[in-house]
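Subject: design request, 434 residues
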């Protein structure tokens, strides 16, 4: 942890100098990635101009990096920019060890909010608890009987809510599960307070929407954190039109300290204007040339679509959130307009469906659209080589492996674990992984 803190401070100091710099600055006493003979870099007005030996340069200011290693800025190939900023303002539930610990945080939050304001949070994972079971609304009702509470699971594919939130949404024992979603129920059929995948919107749609000012604040909070970690470019996996407007304003003000590759939300109000005008690639800090679609849910909440049932839930094959025929029409429409399509697929069934769609459309739409599968987390061995053959990019995130490793064998069983997190198999088959 100490090393991570030092690295963050080191990266932050370089970034802060470059962002604020007027004139020339010489960074010395450093090891520069890709330049084994260099020990210094020269920057002018915030832009690196020359890499070489300190004895060859002169500058108005000199900053010693004390033998540190200097790398190019890192690119995160899949994150949620405003979601990250939002998470820095709500209850941080990552790493909590029990439902009771979260209830205590909610109880404390009730003293800071009125009865009309929602209490929100994100990051809980029941698999990290001593009793790895979904919590219930009753626990939240004890400390927040009148204030609506909505707490997102760490993967964003399930929420834990209290009775007040269910009441606002009108969810009762008679309320049917939506397509691609699930309302967990007790032995009497009453909602327990856990909503999965497409059922989440039943409650979230009642939370007052973020304003443009909120989104600007979220972006600035997120970019400050990302820069402190050395991240200077991101692929934003689901961007709405208003956030794109915010990003354009920030670039015009020279206030956006990283590059954003935007994947448009799959909502007409977000993509229609761009679909008609085509991809936007002229702004060096903002590219709008991709669309994000969802096929299934997440493994932790048992929403990932599997070819065989869950080992720890033998009647459950997961959820398909959007019908494959709808996805196929959308891929064709967006590819024809020049947009890359990025499809969320966790389970092996979802990955196979997406690959089938991409393969079928290759015969219809000529050209290389460099379509992506976001996560490619569980892939049947027969489908591994298809990524390279079809030139479909597997956009994989290492955090899924490290967060899931304590319980993935329970979901998949030992024989199927070899299908999960297949980085090396994909690389050896010829794929380039984002």
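Subject: RE: design request

Done. Sequence follows.
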């Amino acid at each position: 942890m100490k090393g991570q803190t030092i690295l963050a401070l080191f990266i932050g100091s370089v970034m802060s100098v470059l962002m604020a710099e007027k004139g020339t600055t010489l960074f010395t006493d450093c090891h520069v990635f890709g330049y084994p003979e260099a020990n210094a870099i020269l920057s002018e007005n915030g832009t690196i101009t020359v890499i070489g030996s300190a004895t060859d340069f002169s500058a108005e200011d000199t900053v010693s990096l004390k033998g540190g290693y200097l790398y190019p800025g890192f690119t995160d190939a899949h994150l949620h920019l405003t979601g990250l900023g939002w998470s820095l303002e709500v209850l941080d539930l990552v790493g909590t060890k029990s439902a009771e610990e979260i209830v205590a945080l909610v109880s404390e939050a009730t003293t800071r909010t009125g009865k009309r304001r929602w209490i929100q949070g994100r990051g809980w994972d029941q698999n990290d608890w001593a009793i790895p079971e979904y919590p219930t609304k009753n626990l939240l009702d004890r400390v927040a009987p009148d204030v609506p509470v909505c707490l997102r699971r760490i993967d964003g594919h399930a929420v834990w809510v209290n009775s007040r939130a269910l009441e606002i949404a009108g969810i009762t024992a008679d309320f049917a599960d939506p397509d691609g979603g699930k309302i967990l129920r007790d032995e009497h059929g009453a909602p327990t307070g856990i909503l999965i995948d497409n059922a989440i919107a039943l409650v979230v749609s009642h939370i007052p929407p973020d304003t443009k000012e909120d989104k600007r604040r979220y972006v600035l909070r997120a970019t400050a954190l990302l820069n402190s970690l050395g991240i200077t470019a991101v692929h934003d996996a689901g961007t709405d039109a208003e956030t794109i407007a915010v990003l354009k304003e920030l670039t015009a003000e020279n206030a956006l300290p990283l590059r954003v590759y935007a994947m448009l939300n799959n909502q007409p109000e977000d993509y229609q204007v761009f679909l008609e005008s085509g991809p936007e690639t002229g702004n060096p800090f903002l590219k709008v040339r991709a669309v994000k679609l969802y096929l299934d849910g997440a493994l932790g909440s048992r929403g990932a679509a599997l070819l065989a049932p869950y080992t720890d839930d033998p009647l459950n094959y997961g959820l398909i959130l959007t019908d494959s025929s709808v996805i196929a029409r959308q891929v064709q429409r967006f590819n024809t307009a020049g947009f890359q399509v990025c499809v969320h697929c966790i389970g092996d069934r979802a990955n196979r469906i997406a690959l089938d769609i991409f393969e079928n459309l290759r015969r219809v739409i000529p050209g290389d659209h460099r379509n992506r599968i976001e996560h490619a987390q569980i892939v049947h061995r027969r489908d591994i080589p298809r990524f390279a053959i079809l030139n479909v990019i597997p956009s994989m995130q290492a955090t899924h492996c490290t967060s899931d490793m304590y319980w993935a064998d329970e979901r998949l069983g030992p024989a199927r674990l070899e299908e999960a997190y297949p980085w090396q198999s994909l690389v050896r088959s010829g794929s380039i992984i984002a």
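The chain is about 35% helix and 25% strand.
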